Amino acid sequence: MKLSRRMILQGAGSLPFAIASLRTGALAQSAPTAPSEVPPILFVHGNGDYDALWMTSLWRMESNGIARDRMHAINFNDPNARSDDKVEQAGRSSTEDQRRELAAAIAELKRSTGAARVALVGSSRGGYAIRNVIKNGGAGDVSHAVLCGTPNHGVFATDDQPNSEFNGRGAFLRGLNEGESEVTPGVAFLTLRSDGMDKYAQADGRFIGKPGTPTGVSVEGPELKGATNLVLGALDHREVAFHPRAFREIYKFIAGREPARIAIVPEQSVRLSGLVTGTPGGAPTNRPVAGATVDIFRVDPETGERKGSAVHSAKTGADGRWGPAQVEPSWSLEFALAAPDAPTTHIYHSPFPRSSDVVHLRAARPLGPADKDAGAVVIMSRPRGYFGLPRDVVLLDGKEPADVKSGVPTDSTATLRLPAGEVGRNIVAEFNEERIVARAWPASENRIAIAELTY
User: Fold this and answer.
1) What pLDDT, in 10s, does the model give residues 143-159?
2) Of 21 and 441, which is predicted with more confidence?
3) d(CA 168, CA 216)
4) How far apart are CA 42 and CA 29, in angstroms?
5) Residue 389 · residue 406 · CB < 8 Å
6) DSSP-assigned states of every residue in 291-347
7) Which residue in 72, 208, 326, 421 has the most C-beta neighbors within 10 A?
8) pTM value?
9) Strands (E), 11-141
10) What integer best gives the mean pLDDT of the chain?
11) Is 69 exposed, middle or buried (0-12, 13-18, 19+ CB in 10 A)?
């Protein structure tokens, strides 16, 4: 049987993926035995990110019998790291800020479920917060820690930027990594990493703006002495957290058994809700936006045209929440988001097979100098992975976008700028075998369209 890439990405059937490469050292732990009950799971996003990136992981967990109310995905208030961890910086968080917020989320998940310990799963910078909590008094609250693409030995390890939390020679990472073992006893640790495709685990500094300068780190940087370390192959920095292959390893490590299925099992009726946040000054935040209007339209999957009036309309209050909206699992949708001090953002999305309360709507970045001559701006977004040529087929308006490069995948967006005469026509965004149609809205009206891919 030959599986198409789309079948693999959707996790069709229950066929397990090929076994990942296992790397263990003298201090590595044995895999945990199968618990009688899977512990509650708290998912932790990375730098600049938000809870909704874990949506497909949550769906896959639910499809394997994990109750929805035994899982939670955190939103850090200010998801971006400070340039200097010791100096307060507007709209950015310190390692201590994230440790404190994560500790509170753990306490709340324990309270709501009655569990003594929880499992933590983190992407990228989220792994720093997990390690920080565990090392500084939280080990008794945590049964498992899964770190996906976390740059545990730094994005760089040099004498520059000594107070950056991403510096392997800096005080923060030296504190986490000191000792013969780099993990905290009593907690089962798993690391997942790429075999060369992670932009933040590269020997050369070209992906951090310093081409030709050694970073002092390698592709093995995410591994930890004392952990179970798995290599997932040629996946990128985000895919090692959100790809179906990553899900298999996360589930197996926490539950102590293979998942019954990789497939997402559709629900007959779907309820969607979430949070509206913004990008003040171009920087992302997860703080709620009040006074935002959310209109949801059913659209034709072949043309992107609306099918009738809005199926749901809401205006956010102080908590920034919208919903719930009742939709069908076969509907392609447009989310029209009008938020204060932001472009009106039209987000086109493929069908939602299951309900979710983490449909996070963040307004598009402000129109900038590069957009000044554009009649319309359409962004192709892949939140759970990066675009990369030639490994992927990436087409926007039938052409390979100029801002998608060959080599190590480095960005999750591709932008198309259209002349004024082409405003109003439909643009097809294609990533491998996933296809979404968006409308080109007039930039003169401060509107941006986003074709948001699921995989």
Assistant:
1) 999 999 999 999 999 99
2) 441
3) 8
4) 22
5) yes
6) T-EEEEEEE-TTT--B-SS-SEEEE--TT-EEEEEEE-TT-EEEEEEE-TTS-EEEE
7) 72
8) 0.93
9) 21-23, 41-44, 71-73, 118-123
10) 92
11) exposed
